[in-house]
Amino acid sequence: MVCQASLIKKWTPAFGKKVIESTFLDILPNSAVLPGDLVASLLHRFSSHEGYRLFDDVTPFFHDLHKWRDRAQSTFGPDQEPLQLQVGIISNSDDRVPAILSSLGLRVANRSHGSSAAKSNGNIDIDWIVHSYDIGFEKPDRRIFDVAKRCSSLNEAGGKSAFYHVGDSLSEDYQGALGAGWKSVLLDREGKHADAVSCDERVRNLRSVMPRLTQSG
Q: 47, 75, 153, 185 - which has most CB atoms within 10 Å?
């Protein structure tokens, strides 16, 4: 599915208020009145950690990632350019994503579409974020993947680079990334897609992705 920019609403408190009110008023009697603090409460809840939680494998995944970065750094001399492994987010969502991830305890760099190319930082969990609402296209459209490549510095390095996408949607993530020329891994936590995707390109746990990423370097 492709969403043109003119069809994507910028997320603002006013827009969020309108969405919430229309959702509830569509199912409530005509005479019903929403509680005065309901809209503000929901806006806050779904713009912070209160409305979400990390899967249990997320924090260990980033721990593994930082250990690999430290080892890679230590194997190169001071005048050598070490291997880089960046982690980015490609989201069919809006600009609340960085604040939500930060509120969940992840360290997020201030890099997005339109920023200068990212440089891998060992102290950062998420190096860059691309939002569909910001560029006008949603996964599985290959253009959002092309923008993500430009947000990294890897495609400008002139050497060998590989781009992996890991996501839990068969069509938007796995097939979308393949169509854009990326290597793709389906995060199939519940084992629903064993018949659709080979075991070489499917994992049940995020930590199982790390061997694929590091071997590709």
A: 185
